[in-house]
Write a structure and sequence with these properties.
By secondary structure, the protein is an alpha/beta fold. It is 44% helix and 13% strand. The protein contains eleven helices and ten strands. An eight-stranded parallel beta sheet has the order 3-4-5-6-7-8-9-10. It binds adenosine-2'-5'-diphosphate. The site of adenosine-2'-5'-diphosphate has 17 residues, from helix 10.
Amino acid sequence: MKLTSLHFILFSVGIVGTAIFLALFSSTSRSGRKSLFQEENTTKVKMQTLSGLPVPPIGYGVFRMDPGAATRDAISTAISIGYRHIDTAKLYGNEAEVGEAIRLSGLPRGEFFVTTKIWNDDQGYDRTIAAAKESRDRLGIGPIDLLILHAPVVGKRLDSYRALVELQKLGVTRFIGVSNYGIQHLEEIRVQGLPTPACNQIELHPFLQRRELVAYCERQGIALVAYSPLAKAKALGDAKVVEVATRLGVTPAQVMLRWGLQKGFVVLPKSTRAERQRENLDLRVEIPTHEMEVLDSLESGLVTGWDPTVWK
Ligand code: A2P
């Protein structure tokens, strides 16, 4: 029989179709687990939080990444792997690198969600207004997506928050929120009749669950954004985390992060290594209820950074 190009095309389609079927079948039978996300690349799915924040639930944190080309390249790598949500701050000194990596990516600005923060020294109404505009200009990507107060500075935080409200009206930022706030700080905002913050970014992981604060935020419709969701790698060797990871066929880091997602948190893992950035983005494997309970039992008040939620 003479082989025509039609035969060749039909043959190729058959091979590709079989390959796709096998890939799908083997991944289903291997894991046999449900997926929280429709897409493999979970960060591209935007989570519509109660506060209306349209945010990719896995963000890339750039804390302690020094200014310069190495950081810009690490961010570029993260973008190429699929991260679209980047969390920076004036304090980190790398807003310019974040903006540069986004511009270099050539991707539409609208694909990204960028958070930056007003550092404590810049709090107070006028300084906050000025500092926000400086941050926006350093980023150089148009309006900031989410602008938050880095911490509840005593005596200044309400004026700073009023400035955020104004900055949102001015179009400097799309959303406003807070970070490291305890219930007492959030109550101040509520009592003043000011708009509810879109988020409270706090340290959260199985070893620091802040249940009362989390329940308060959920009641008020304030999205919870978890920083140091890996507890700065200090507890990845914990026996129970390792056991759960082994039973589910994933890594301890994936267990910690997926625990946060299943609690409804946005998670901000930080890694300078491409293979870990990839691993931290692949959180498809669902943790069953009984394994979530094992992780819930790990609460131990482990604060790996600072704890301004207790400030007066
Ligand atoms: P590295 O940057 O060398 O990858 P957190 O996000 O809680 O602040 O934790 C950050 C720490 O966790 C960094 O030390 C980072 O190291 C490490 N880390 C990030 N991802 C992983 C991972 N998938 N496995 C192990 N360690 C990780």
